[in-house]
Specification:
The protein has 15 helices and twelve strands. It is globular, with a radius of gyration of 23 Å. The model has no long low-confidence stretch (mean pLDDT 95). Helix content is 39%, strand content 14%. By secondary structure, the protein is α/β, with parallel strands linked by helices. Helix 3 packs parallel to helix 10. Strand 2, helix 5 and strand 3 form a beta-alpha-beta unit. The structure holds pyridoxal-5'-phosphate. Pyridoxal-5'-phosphate binds next to helix 4 and helix 5.
Length: 394
């Protein structure tokens, strides 16, 4: 390097720092590079033949992205996986790779707001027909199947009432009619449920939530049929919504503790749900481990490792009282996201479900008194006493 000028040196020095290293990095380094170098035309040919260890351009593939893809593929026990810049990018790739103008799909009527918006504002514009229905009865689903129906889309559990997807029913109907079944498994993660084992063809995740877990990176994943994943990658390479090396690295690092976190989330949430049920200021508690939950009768047979950290409860239908609770909480923060290590609360009627009318809210069993709780992994006694102090104020 000595013979080069400052500009040249500052660009090229240090790039080959690991070339002669005797020992290799124990954990994944961050490949924060947009492009890879070739020594020869043979190496280009090798890349184009599909050698997985050969990289060209980060939009098309990067070791950090691949590490995350391999991790989710093994956790969900799928054929192949793909990583994306967000949960929405993952859902977009899965749907855009399968549906064309003139096709029809069936979606749960209680999907995540961003998903509903993607379907209504974008997919419908490109001539894709969508029926939004409650996926709770065979007759209702079959009534909506048409000759051009391609797939059924559901979330493993809904926000905020944690209504659980009846996988036995969805799997049966999709099989009977030759439809693809896509499940958003964000709320449960493969630690608590593996949809591919029970009839799903494709699973999507917002890794922004439990998989990363630390509320410091946005990302998404899809895992399922190999050919479909390849099509997803083509779509996302063309759109350009791949995950960045740093976000992939953070998510990969976060995911290392997923199993212990999910166990703690589930145990804490069960304790919190029992406490809320016993509090006379609380009218209802929605947590699928409780016998009182409308989906308990099949949820108990689906979730053998725990029921996750998401729940809702209902106090008096009164916005001033909600405000008193929010202001009374010290440890638990009011944050309109979920599924991180810290316990957070949200108010669906004023945040995630704000665009719905009173009538639509009532149909979903949500009112101004509904509070969504994402139970974290703190000491459970501290979570409960924070809630108890706040509830005493009303
Ligand atoms: C947050 C979320 C998404 C969207 O994920 P982003 O990472 O925010 O794009 C999709 N589905 C569910 C169930 C979510 O909670």
């Amino acid at each position: 390097m000595d013979k080069y000028g400052f500009s040249t040196k500052s660009i090229h020095s240090g790039n080959e720092i690991d070339i002669n290293m005797v020992t290799k990095a124990k954990t994944m380094p961050i490949y924060e590079t947009s492009v890879f170098e070739y020594d020869s035309i043979e190496q280009v040919d090798d890349y184009l033949k599909g050698n997985k260890d050969n990289y060209m351009y980060t939009r098309l593939g990067n070791p950090n992205q691949r590490a995350l893809e391999e991790l989710i593929t093994s956790l969900e026990e799928g054929e192949a996986g793909a990583a994306f810049s967000s949960g929405m990018a993952a859902i977009s790739a899965v749907l855009l790779s399968k549906l064309s103008c003139g096709d029809h799909m069936i979606s749960t009527s209680v999907a995540y707001g961003g998903t509903t918006s993607l379907l209504k504002k974008e997919l419908e514009r490109f001539g894709i027909e969508i029926s939004f229905i409650e996926l709770t009865s065979e007759e209702e689903i079959e009534k909506n199947i048409k000759p051009n129906t391609k797939l059924i889309y559901s979330e493993i559990a809904s926000n905020p009432l944690v209504r659980v997807a009846n996988m036995e029913l969805l799997s049966l109907v999709s099989k009977k009619h030759g439809l693809k079944l896509v499940i958003d498994n964000t709320f449960m993660t493969p630690i608590l449920y593996q949809p591919l084992k029970y009839g799903a063809h494709m699973v999507v995740h917002s890794t922004t939530k439990y998989i990363n877990g630390h509320s410091d990176a946005t990302g998404g994943l899809a895992v399922g049929e190999k050919d479909w994943i390849q099509d997803c990658k083509r779509v996302i390479n063309n759109i350009g919504a791949m995950i960045s090396p740093f976000e992939a690295w953070l998510t990969y690092r976060g995911a290392k503790t997923l199993a212990v976190r999910m166990e703690r989330h589930s145990n804490n949430a069960t304790e919190v749900a029992k406490y809320l049920q016993s509090n006379n200021r609380v009218n209802k508690v929605f947590y699928p481990a409780l016998k009182s939950h409308p989906d308990y009768y099949f949820a108990k047979d689906m979730f053998h490792n725990g029921f996750g950290g998401m729940m809702s409860f209902e106090i008096e239908n009164n916005i001033e009282k909600i405000d008193k609770i929010i202001k009374g909480l010290k440890l638990i923060k009011f944050a309109p996201s979920l599924a991180g290590i810290a316990t957070t609360i949200s108010h669906p009627a004023k945040t995630s479900h704000r665009s719905l009318t009173q009538e639509q809210l009532a149909k979903l069993d949500i009112n101004l008194g509904t509070i969504r709780l994402s139970v974290g992994i703190e000491d459970v006694d501290d979570i409960i006493s924070d809630l108890d102090e706040a509830l005493k104020r009303i």
